[in-house]
Every structure is written in C-alpha cells, then in structure tokens.
Amino acid sequence: MxxxxxxxxxxxxxxxxxxxxxxxxxxxxxxxxxxxxxxLENQLGVQLLYRTTRQVTPTDTGRAFYERCIDILSSLExxxxxxxxxxxxxKGTLKINAPxxxxxxxxxxxxxxxxxxxxxxxxxxxxxDRFVDPISEGYDLVIRIGSPLKSPSLVAHHIxxxxxxxxxxxxxxxxxxxxxxxxxxKNHSCLHYGYLATxxxxxxxxxxxxxxxxxxxxxxxxxxxxxxDAAVKGLGIVMLPTFIVEQELELGELQIILPNYxxxxxTLCVIYPVNRHLSTKIQLFTQFLQECFAN
Length: 295
Fold this sequence. Notes:
The protein is α/β, with parallel strands linked by helices. 42% of the residues lie in helices and 26% in strands. Helix 1 packs across helix 4. The N and C termini lie far apart (54 Å).
C-alpha cells in the first residue's frame, strides 16, 4: 500500500476532524480512508488518532507526526509542480504580504506589470507594516524592509539595499536650528518609526564608527508615509528610507541634515517558507522584483 497515500489520508482526517469528511475530500470511501490510516499506524507501531463516535483527534504523537507530514507533502507537491510547470505556463494564486508605504509607492504598478506578463497568475496582495510569518499566516511570500532575517524555516531572498536619510522641513529648521552633530538631536522634536528594534534611539554611522543617540520622540508611528507628512508639516526631524521622501526632497519640502552621519541601510527582501523554494510562481516573482528594484 502506498505510504504517501496513507500519509495523505491521515493528514486529511486530522484537518477535517472525521473520516467521512476526509473521504469526501479525497473522493474515496470512508472504509478506504480508515484502512489507509490503520495501515500507517501498523507500519509505525503507534496510535496516531483518538477515535470516538463524534470526532477524531490526533494523539500527542499523531500531532507531532502531522506537523512533519504536512512539510513532507508540501515539499512533494512543490517538486511535482515544479516539474510539471517546466512544460506549461505558470498559473494559480500568489498570496503576497508587503509593507504599506512600499506597496503603495513602488509595488502596485510593478504587480500590474507582472500580471500582464504572466496572465494565468492571480495576485492576492495585503499591505501592512507589522512583521508577518508566512507559514502561520498562510502567505506564499512576504516582502519586508529591515535587517537581514535568519530563520531555519524561512528563506530570505535579498532584492536590494535601501538607503535612509535624516531630514526635516525648512520651516522647522529655521525655527529650531540645524543640528551640527547627533548629540544635538535630543534637543529637537523627532518623529520616530514605531517598530524600530532600538526603541527611542537612532543608530548612525560616521566613517565606519557607529553611534547610538537617544532622541526626543514627540510623535511615533509604524507607517513611514505618516511620519513623512508630519515632517513636511514642520513637526520635527525624521529618519526614513529615501524612496519615501525622495519627491519631498526634490521639491524642497524636506531638507537632509547631518549628511556625514548615515543611518544603516535597510534590506529589501522576499521571505518565503523553505519548503516553497521550488515554486515556479515564487521564483518568477522574486526574479521579477530583482529586475525591477536591483538598481
């Protein structure tokens, strides 16, 4: 009896909560699904499921085995898909999560271009600024801006480097003065990105020497566009990626300060579960982002 078929039957029973529902999902008889699971338990020599007249639930051993099985089946599915898609056009839905500011300013038009190129791929895009785990939240891939990610269960594919600047409105600098060194930031009103791991501190680099300076955070937000707009209104000094403030700098609505002190650059990366690395859709979209943003 095919062990993979037994594993599929077992995972379906766990997910559906009954043999009858799993049988309908697999288009098999209830007795056939039951036989597959019993065969798997006999091969392993353990009980995987608690069976009652009302429901079926996994034992502790069964739950641990289920977690391993879904990874195995997902990898097998991806391998089969990768082979089959070598001879056909990529298709299906790609669920993507991306930061709000980057999604609005830079990603939306690129996704439209991607979908024009690959007409059988559907995109489901969610924009939010919190950290998102693609495994637990069901995304095919997550686009994030920040420090490089290290996780054994995730692949972080580097796309490009995003520089940051410190800037403020000319009206603010005229009223409060232009700081000549980082220590003077504590005497200024600063607009603080809410998800910075360093707290109310800014990290700056001058000739490879790193400094951390405490700031007077008068306004905090987890969205860069909100902070940019507050800076343009003269509320204070802000540190943001250049792609968010580029237009305002060109128009003179914001002015770079402390040019000799650079904030650490951020990394734009694509993150996806390690068992999805063979997905043609993910590979194509990752390569497409590299083409668009590498420079």
